[in-house]
Amino acid sequence: MELKGIHHVSALTAKAAENLDFYTNVLGMRLVKKTVNQDDTYVYHLFYADEKGNPGTDLTFFEIPMLARNYRGVSSISNTFLRVPNDAALAYWKKRFIDFNVEHADMKEQAGRKILPFNDHEGQQLTLISDEKNQGVASGSPWNKSPVPVQYGITGLGPIQLTVENAEPTVKILTDILGFRLKEYDPSPIKGQADIKIYETGEGGSGAQVYLEERKDLPAAQLGRGGVHHVAFRVQDEETLRKWVDRLRAARIANSGFVDRYYFRSLYFREPNGILFELATDGPGFDIDEPIEHLGENLALPSFLEPQREQIEAKLKPLKTQS
C-alpha cells in the first residue's frame, strides 16, 4: 500500500500551441501523448515527460481556451519542481533562460539541493532542482531528440509544493491516510512565516517528496491558466489501487472511486484544504496504443473514445507536433 512517489502533475493552459512550443522547444521535454480531456473531449490534454513517458516524469496540461489567469494563494499546488542531473545543468539552464527570455530567479539552495526557480510563458511557477546530492526514487531519461543536450535534460518531476492556510488537516491526510513521513524542515523564504515541512514516501528523495507551506498572509488561490489542477501519486498496480478505494471509503473520505484513464487507473479525492489529489497506477503506460518511437506524433484516443474520432477531430484546432 506504500505510495511510490509522484506520478504526474496536471496544470491548465489557455493555448495548446504555445504550451507545446514552450515545453518541447524551450524546456526540451518530449510530448509523449497528444490526446483529449476525457471529461471534455473537444479540448486537448497534452503529456510531456522523459524519453519513454515513465511514471514520475509526466507534466500534463488541460487546454481551456480563453481561460482567465491564475492567481496564487493558499489551497493550491504552488510550485512544481523538475529534476536535472546535477549542479552544472542548472548553470546551463540559467544561460538558456536568458537566451529564450524566460522569467527566472537566481540559483539558490533549498533543503540542501541547488535550485533554479522560473515561470513558464503563462506564469506557472516551476523550479529546476539538481539531483547532484539527491538519493531516492530513480529519475527518468531525457529525450535523445531534444533541443536540450541530454546531459542537461529534464529527467522527471521533483518535489511538489502545497500552500495552505492551516497545515494540520493536510498533514493528517499525508501521514495518517497516505503514509507520508516527515523528513525535515526548511526555513520559509518569507519573513515571519512557518518553516516548510518536507514529507516523503517510498524510496524518498526528490521524486517522492511534498513540500508543505503554511501561509497566513495570502488569499485563497484562483485557479486559471498557469495554475496546477492536481497532483497524482504513484500506486503499483490496479489491485493496490482498489485497496486504496476501500481505504478511503473506510475513512469516510469522499472520492471518485475507481476510474479507468486507459493509460493508467486512477482515484481522486480532495484533502481538507481543497487540493485535488489523485492516486494513479504505473501502468499500462503510454505505449499501449503507440510505439515508443512515435509517442505523441498523432492524436491518440482511448478505445472507448475511438468511435467518436471524426467528431472529436473536427472540433480540435490542428496541433503540429514532432515526427
UniProtKB/TrEMBL annotation:
Keyword Cell inner membrane assigned: no
CDD domains for the chain: PcpA_C_like (cd08347)
Entry-linked SUPFAM superfamilies: Glyoxalase/Bleomycin resistance protein/Dihydroxybiphenyl dioxygenase
GO molecular function: dioxygenase activity
Pfam families: Glyoxalase
Record InterPro entries: Extradiol_RC_dioxygenase, Glyas_Bleomycin-R_OHBP_Dase, Glyas_Fos-R_dOase_dom, VOC_core
Keywords (A to Z) from UniProt: Dioxygenase, Oxidoreductase
Domain VOC: residue ranges: 5-131, 156-282
Name of the protein in question: Ring-cleaving dioxygenase
Phylogenetic lineage: Bacteria, Bacillati, Bacillota, Bacilli, Bacillales
